[in-house]
Write a structure and sequence with these properties.
With 293 residues, the protein is mainly α. It is 71% helix and 0% strand.
Length: 293
């Protein structure tokens, strides 16, 4: 056997699927922009607080509502706190809200959707009727109801947003499982005696990950927006935490005299949600088997 034929017979490197995924993802310019924005925000949330010169909670009434200057790049808020510093610290809070909320939604929705699609019958009937009852309320209204029951605060806002998004993941996973469970490789594994738990863990769930990853990325943006809405209504993060929605709410009364106090938190929410949505769209196109070449 020649060297070339022997090399061709070797299995493809384990990293090749990820490389192909990245190449397909990189074809979309908007997705690259979204990824750059998201990476920049995550970097600001991780290392930004160590680079800031000001304390985000330090009140200085003498410097209230100052315009942008060398000392305060974006100006100050109604209590004299540096706006740039509060925005950077707010990125940490808001991104944590978004990612942890989606994690809670996955923990709740994934097992329900997996069991519902695999076992069907009364299990499917029970879980899907529960999902339909929850979906009778819009996600934001459901989050408000949950916060009203368990109380306000950052942790409770994460729980409320997670509960409001769990039905989306449950229905998505159920639909994928209903298709995958009928595949030949699942039937073959069942024929050789594989148990239900092994089938779901080793053969069904891994083949449902592509749409799940895309949906999770998009839901982070939705969760961040819902959490900001709770903060705007005073039901999420509480003062003096520099959460973007709460900052926007407190800045409403200064729209005429100091519009930048409300503009910057609003822009931060807009850019973050847009970046995450662009990444989600890029992943959807990259993971779509109909677009593979």
């Amino acid at each position: 056997m020649s060297v070339s034929s022997a090399a061709a017979a070797l299995p493809a490197p384990a990293h090749r699927p990820w490389r192909m995924l990245w190449l397909r993802f990189a074809r979309y310019r908007a997705a690259q922009v979204g990824l750059a924005v998201t990476a920049l925000l995550i970097a600001a949330a991780v290392v930004g607080p160590w680079l800031m010169r000001h304390d985000p909670l330090a009140v200085n009434p003498v410097k209230r509502l100052l315009p942008p200057s060398r000392e305060h790049v974006l100006g100050t808020d109604e209590l004299g706190r540096d706006l740039l510093t509060r925005l950077v610290y707010g990125a940490r809070i808001s991104l944590r809200l978004g990612f942890i909320s989606v994690g809670i939604a996955l923990l709740l929705g994934l097992p329900a959707g997996l069991a519902s699609g695999y076992y069907r019958g009364w299990v499917d009937l029970f879980f899907m009727r529960a999902v339909e009852v929850i979906q009778c309320l819009p996600p934001l209204l459901l989050a408000i109801v949950v916060v009203s029951v368990i109380g306000t605060g950052l942790v409770n806002a994460m729980i409320a947003v997670g509960i409001s998004q769990a039905p989306t993941f449950a229905r998505l996973i159920r639909g994928q499982v209903l298709v995958v469970r009928e595949m030949d490789y699942v039937e073959a594994a069942r024929a050789v005696g594989a148990r239900d738990a092994l089938l779901m863990r080793r053969h069904i769930l891994p083949n449902c990950l592509a749409p799940l990853i895309v949906q999770a990325t998009l839901q982070v943006a939705t969760a961040l927006l819902t959490a900001a809405s709770l903060g705007f209504l005073g039901l999420g993060a509480q003062p003096p935490d520099p959460e973007w929605g709460a900052m926007l709410s407190r800045a409403r009364q200064f729209l005429r005299t100091a519009p930048m106090v409300a503009t910057y938190p609003g822009l931060a929410i807009l850019v973050t949600v847009l970046g995450l949505n662009l990444v989600g769209d890029g992943l959807r196109d990259a993971l779509d088997p109909r677009l593979k070449r």
